[in-house]
Write a structure and sequence with these properties.
The structure holds 2 protein chains of 2 kinds.
Chain A lengths: L1 H33 L2 H40 L5 H36 L6 E2 L4 E2 L8 H5 L2 H12 L4 H4 L1 H7 L10 E3 L17 E3 L4 E3 L28 E3 L7 E4 L2 E4 L6 E3 L6 H18 L4 E7 L3 H4 L11 H11 L4 E3 L2 H6 L15 H15 L10 E8 L2 H5 L4 H5 L2 E7 L7 E5 L7 E3 L22 E5 L8 E6 L1 H4 L2 H4 L5 E6 L7 H7 L4 E7 H4 L4 H9 L1
Parallel strand pairs in A: 10-11, 10-19, 17-18, 17-19
Antiparallel strand pairs in A: 1-2, 3-6, 4-5, 7-8, 8-9, 12-13, 14-15, 14-16, 16-18
Chain B lengths: L5 H15 L5 H19 L4 H20 L4 H35 L14 H16 L9 H9 L1 H4 L7 H9 L5 H33 L14 H32 L17 H7 L2 H12 L9 H15 L4 H20 L1 H6 L2 H20 L3 H11 L10 H9 L1 H10 L3 H8 L4 H26 L13
Classes of the chains: A alpha+beta, B mainly alpha.
């Protein structure tokens, strides 16, 4: 109250002073014309005095009036008059606008400067599992097709400082969009599994000399609606979408952003739940069978379904909530016709206490692929070099994809993986060529890449999934040509097969544009191996197998 | 370049603002705007910037000719030359493929389509140029004597690529004389941030809900095969919210940027979803487009004054076609035209008798079905959509993934519905009531601005490529 009074007083004074100055000026001018200086000065002084007097009176009146007003308004309920209030609101509004402008500009400028000067990220993004963009090279053609400018924008966003650490925000934020009940989490499934069903394979498998043929009947139990079964989602879920799972009784582990974390200390392990469906498994077998039919009797077609770590390390109490990989492998096996089944499940299961799966990455360890490739080499009746002939490369501090997908679980970070891979003795003499997904623009390169190490170690061999690789071993003259249709799991097999086949073509199912049958015929394939993980064998992804055959 | 992009927000814009406000000379400021606008356009369209430049030069000269030869034959010829040039360019670059496709299927011929890529923003800047030329011809505005000022009007980056369609008459004065007041700067910044948040936080999330419901063009709308009746209705309503937040978000950014530079563009969206009928809806939705057709097409007596339905047909045919070279868009336009005519026939007074929630429901149902026609670009998917909508899709009444989707996005959906009403405006007005309220409302406003800006920026780290919808037009 006191402050306001003082303000008003000051305002009044200021106002009057202003008037005074103006008046004295005009007086000076008019009087100057008629009077001699002395009289003029006298008159002027008097005039000034009068003015000051009047001014003082006006200030006094003003103050009096305003005090009166204040008293009146306080009687009326402490509300300043409408005019005053409006003026005050307006002044306040201006002030707030000023603060708003300063604040927003500050935020923008500070972020802009940080983004300009801070060290940018580079290399491979653990979160996205891909290589970050690099600054594009300028050329006129790049400018005109727009790839330069879009490259700059991509580079700018992709290499934002601390990007890897900030990315987790968006998934956390999107949880605020709706109700996510306690214990419920969004499960990230790599295999993009449409149907999460609990199915049990109850048939029997008879074994013939080379092909395994199933003669029993397949019984599929329908999912039971109970608290503990994962909810059945319709197969419409989109790539990258998340499937909610109802209350999970995670006793032996915990869920971190949908990734199951089991064990503790050095045994801590991240797992992704398996939920493949029998019908996709059946389709997988049917689609692979068609390759055999198309390629004819002189080409051997093999199927290797690679179990994921979940098959061996899932806590007992959770097993009922997820699909069983062995059951589905048996299901697939029962539908294979003319295709040679490479059974690696039992081999890996027997060695599950060894370090055959990474704990922080969704892939297997190369040594597991060594065991698996041996089963295949035996079936294909080709030479197979013992592991002792390989050069062992050990990389410590490996934190893989599951670590990123768990939103950087602290326990995992504490106990990183050791990634061990093996270079064949003839590595330097191998002729390795990479082609684009059209099988064009071949480029000579090598099998192992040093550049990719530490960040995404699983890419140490073959590097990028997308490219088609051709490995020619000039020392092997058995006339056998192997085509591997694989997902990223299959990559690990390749180094161990280099001395077994004269030529190996490595094709990723997901990125292949030619017709697969024509491709096999053109390269003179004698053996065709399907090597994918169980996520791929029993999800919508099986459609890739059919797509590339008919495209 | 896209507005909702870190490169734009934290590199291009700050640089532009620093240079723009480094002097008070308007000539210099205009030069900064022209240069940055051209860079902005060339960033996404390095080839077709030539078309933009040619188009502005040709139309600037024609505008001068029309201005000099008031209402004479020369002016008429220049006007027609301009119309042919502009509509021709639009026809060649936007519709040639569509026209040839239709000729082929109608006559069994086999012309190969020219395969032009649509130059970004051509639909918008062509209409801006047309409005200028016609206004000059009608004597509403004097022609612009300086080329760079005309170029600035057309290429002004806030509205260049996705509207609103700013008329020359709206900003003619401001091209030569404008100031950014404190209130312009403050409101402009807030508006830009609001627009970015609308796009990044709300629209992109709604977009992924729609993706989960229906799928999109690239997967042949796969979701339609399994979605239930309730799910289909839910999906189209989310489409409506998504389009609103995407389009109006872009307009907010454009208008806000305009204000930062001292331009005052007209509003483009005025809470369309509070409308009580379709006529009102179109007075509130994409206002700059609707008023363009109203002022330049409806009252042009192509069909004679008496045949107003002919004019209406043309307007709605063009409105549909403008949104894309595809039959479903034309169908969509005519669908709306049909309701406009029906409402005209019923009459304003009788329309008003339909009250409150019922009127609102009518509007929502018509608009939602409209979005279905808009979204499903191929006819067979559209058919399946209609079957689902009325319960003959064979996927049941309700499905579990719809329930999950609603539950997982409940707050987002509620917020989206609430924010498509003028609630924020009302809260802002509360701030004028008393000093205390003013401080409270404005403090909350500033805090929200900061939060929206930072959250949007963080979310933008993830989706590097999510252009605004109106880029397609």
């Amino acid at each position: 109250m006191e402050n306001k009074k003082k303000n008003n007083y000051d305002k009044g004074k200021g106002l009057v002073t202003g008037v005074e100055v103006v008046n004295s000026k005009s007086g000076k001018e008019t009087l100057n014309l008629q009077l001699d200086p002395e009289k003029y000065k006298k008159l002027q002084d008097e005039h000034e005095r009068n003015k000051r007097k009047a001014a003082r009176k006006r200030v006094y009146d003003n103050t009096k009036q305003s005090i009166k007003k204040k008293i009146q308004s306080s009687v009326e309920g402490d509300l300043p008059s409408v005019d005053d209030k409006d003026r005050e609101v307006k002044a306040l509004k201006l002030e707030m606008q000023f603060i708003n402008v300063i604040a927003m500009r500050l935020i923008i400028i500070i972020i802009a400067v940080i983004l300009l000067v801070a060290k940018r990220e580079s290399g491979i993004s653990e979160h996205d599992n891909r290589e970050l963009a690099t600054f594009p090279e300028f050329s006129l053609s790049a400018w005109f097709d727009g790839s330069f400018t879009s490259g700059v924008t991509d580079y700018y966003t992709d290499t934002i400082p601390y990007r890897e650490n900030l990315l987790g925000f968006s998934s956390k934020f999107s949880k605020l969009y709706g109700l996510n009940f306690k214990n419920e989490d969004r499960v990230v499934q790599f295999g993009n599994v449409g149907n999460v069903e609990t199915e049990e394979f109850t048939g029997t498998i008879t074994t013939t000399s080379k092909l395994e043929i199933f003669t029993g009947t397949q019984v599929v139990t329908t999912p039971q609606a109970s608290e503990t079964t994962p909810s059945v989602t319709t197969p419409q879920s989109e790539p990258g979408s998340t499937t909610p799972v109802t209350t999970l009784p995670v006793e032996d582990g915990r869920l971190s952003n949908g990734i199951l974390i089991v064990g503790s200390g050095e045994d801590v392990r991240a797992l992704e739940g398996y939920g493949g469906s029998f019908s996709y498994g059946k389709n997988y077998a049917k689609f692979v069978n068609k390759y055999k039919q198309d390629l004819g009797q002189y080409v051997n077609v093999y199927s290797m379904c690679i179990p994921t770590a979940f098959a061996f390390y899932c806590p007992e109490n959770l097993k009922d909530n997820y699909g069983d990989q062995l059951d589905n492998i048996n299901n697939i096996r029962s539908h294979l016709d003319g295709v040679i089944d490479i059974d690696i499940y039992s081999v890996l299961e027997a060695r599950k206490n060894e370090y055959i799966y990474s704990r922080t990455d969704h892939h297997w360890q190369p040594i597991a692929a060594y065991y698996a490739a041996k089963v295949f080499a035996d079936a294909a009746q080709v030479d197979y070099k013992d592991i002792s002939t390989y050069e062992k490369v050990v990389e410590d501090d490996f934190l893989g994809t599951l670590y990123a997908y768990s939103e950087y679980d602290a326990e995992l970070k504490k106990y990183p993986d050791t990634f061990t891979y093996y270079k064949p003795w003839n590595n330097s003499s191998l002729k390795v060529t990479y082609y684009d997904t059209d099988f064009k623009n071949g480029e000579r390169s090598r099998l192992f890449f040093k550049a990719y190490q530490k960040i995404n170690l699983y890419s140490s061999f073959l590097g990028d999934d997308k490219r088609i690789a051709h490995i020619n071993n000039p020392d092997c003259k058995n006339g056998r040509t192997l085509v591997i249709f694989k997902d990223s799991f299959g990559n690990a097999l390749v180094p161990f097969l280099t001395s077994s086949f004269e030529n190996i073509y490595v094709v990723d199912l997901r990125y292949f544009t030619p017709n697969a049958i024509e491709f096999c015929q053109n390269v003179g394939a004698t053996d065709v191996l399907f090597a994918t993980c169980m996520f791929t064998c029993s999800s919508q992804k099986v459609n890739y197998i059919e797509n590339i055959r008919v495209q | 370049m896209v507005f909702a992009d870190l490169f734009f927000m934290y590199f291009f814009l700050p640089l532009c603002l620093i240079l723009y406000f480094s002097t008070k000379k308007l000539q210099y400021r205009n030069a900064v705007l022209v240069v940055f606008s051209l860079i902005f356009y060339a960033w996404g369209e390095p080839k077709w910037i030539i078309l933009l430049l040619v188009s502005t030069i040709v139309n600037w000269i024609l505008g001068l000719i029309i201005g000099k030869n008031n209402e004479s034959v020369v002016a008429k010829i220049a006007l027609f030359a301009s119309l042919i040039f502009n509509i021709g360019a639009l026809g060649v670059f936007k519709y040639s493929g569509f026209i040839i496709e239709n000729i082929n299927s109608a006559f069994g011929t086999d012309f190969s389509p020219p395969g032009f890529t649509l130059p970004i923003g051509i639909s918008f800047y062509t209409f801006q140029i047309l409005s200028y030329i016609i206004d000059v011809y009608w004597g509403k505005v004097p022609s612009q004597k300086k080329y760079y000022k005309f170029l600035m009007y057309v290429s002004l980056f806030p509205q260049l690529v996705a509207g609103p369609i700013v008329r020359y008459s709206e900003i003619a004065k401001e091209i030569d004389d404008r100031r950014t007041k404190l209130s312009d700067m403050s409101d402009g910044l807030s508006r830009v941030i609001l627009g970015i948040a609308k796009k990044v936080i709300v629209a992109n999330s709604l977009n992924s809900i729609v993706q989960n419901c229906f799928g999109d063009m690239s997967d042949g709308f796969a979701g339609l095969k399994s979605i239930s009746t309730v799910g289909t209705w839910y999906g189209v309503i989310v489409i409506g919210l998504w389009y609103y937040f995407d389009f109006s978000g872009y307009s907010d950014i454009a208008i806000g940027l305009g204000r930062i530079f001292g331009f005052h563009f007209n509003e483009n969206f005025n809470y369309p979803y509070i409308s009580k009928n379709i006529t009102e809806f179109w007075q509130r939705w994409h206002i700059s487009l609707g008023s363009f057709f109203r002022d330049y097409l409806l009252y042009v007596p192509i069909f004679g004054k008496r045949r107003k339905y002919g004019g209406l047909f043309l307007v709605w045919f063009c409105t549909g076609l403008w949104h894309g070279a595809s039959w479903n868009f034309i169908l969509w336009g005519l669908y709306y035209g049909m309701f406009i005519v029906i409402e005209m026939k019923i009459g304003k007074k009788k329309m008003k008798k339909l009250k409150g929630p019922l009127a609102h429901l009518y509007m929502i149902v018509v608009v939602a079905i409209g979005y279905g026609i808009f979204y499903f670009e191929d006819i067979s998917s559209l058919g399946r959509f209609f079957k689902n909508l009325v319960g003959f899709g064979g996927n049941g009444f309700i499905d579990s993934s719809t329930i999950t989707s609603v539950r997982n996005n409940l707050f987002l959906l509620l917020a989206a519905v609430l924010l498509s009403t003028p609630i924020v405006q009302k809260v802002k007005k509360l701030g004028d009531k008393s000093p205390q309220a003013c401080v409270a409302v404005n403090t909350i406003g500033i805090a929200l601005n900061a939060a929206m800006l930072i959250i949007s920026s963080l979310l933008l780290l993830n989706n590097t490529n999510n252009p605004f919808l109106y880029f397609r037009f």
